[in-house]
From TrEMBL:
One of its GO terms (molecular function) is phosphoribosylanthranilate isomerase activity. The lineage of its organism: Bacteria, Pseudomonadati, Pseudomonadota, Betaproteobacteria, Nitrosomonadales. InterPro entries: Aldolase_TIM, PRAI_dom, RibuloseP-bd_barrel, TrpF_fam. Pfam families: PRAI. It comes from Nitrosomonas ureae. This is N-(5'-phosphoribosyl)anthranilate isomerase. CDD domains: PRAI (cd00405).
Length: 205
């Protein structure tokens, strides 16, 4: 089965276009204002208006207000919401768009319990725990911490790059992989060659 790919933290039209040319399945926009990869919803709309069919537009949030999610989802024409904070399932469930829940993994994280708690999510995105950094850390976590069987589709994130993505997929067998800093020259600035190299690493399996 093909592994899906999302390139997250898109801030420029040329980077969105490069990701689409490379064959990604989703592009992600960070709507958390404290992030170096934050994008205004009006700018994201310029990009999503040109996204071809069957590519998903994902909005990324960290403990947002309801009104902010609704506004950004409408303006940026989002297909999927990604929550990276402490949002409870009741919060995540109230929007028109489906959602995935990001979990920052530590040795004592009970991922089976999270999968049950967020059973209405379309998937669990597993990322690296770094204090005060909800995502985009550039660091991988111990993939051995992932249970062999999760009740939700696994989206692997955290420290992935063109050099390690093939091995990560072989070890964890995810439904999808999510990359941001691993295909950047600086925060929010993607590198087209790295995106294509990342896709080759995914597809060679």
């Amino acid at each position: 089965m093909s592994v899906r790919v999302k390139v997250c933290g898109i801030t420029r039209c040329e980077d969105a276009a490069a990701a689409i040319r490379a064959g990604v399945d989703a592009i992600g926009f960070v709507f958390w204002p404290q992030s170096a990869r934050y994008i205004e919803p009006d700018i994201a709309r310029i990009m999503t208006a040109n996204v071809p069919p069957f590519i998903c537009n994902v909005g990324v949030y960290v403990d947002p207000d309801v009104a902010w999610v609704e506004k950004t989802a409408r303006v940026a024409q989002l297909n999927l919401l990604q929550f990276h904070g402490d949002e409870p399932p009741e919060f995540c469930n109230q929007f028109s768009q489906p959602y995935i829940k990001a979990i920052r993994v530590k040795p004592d994280t009970d991922l089976l319990q999270y999968a049950e708690r967020y059973r209405t999510a379309k998937g669990l995105l597993l990322d690296t725990y770094v204090a005060d950094m909800p995502g985009g850390t550039g660091h991988a976590f111990e993939w051995d911490l992932i249970p062999k069987r999760l009740s939700l589709p696994l989206i692997l994130s955290g420290g992935l790059n063109p050099a390690n993505v093939s091995g990560a997929i072989q070890q964890t067998q995810p439904w999808a992989v999510d990359v941001s800093s691993g295909v950047e020259t600086s925060k929010g600035i993607k590198d087209e060659k790295k995106i294509f190299a990342f896709m080759r690493g995914v597809k060679q399996l």
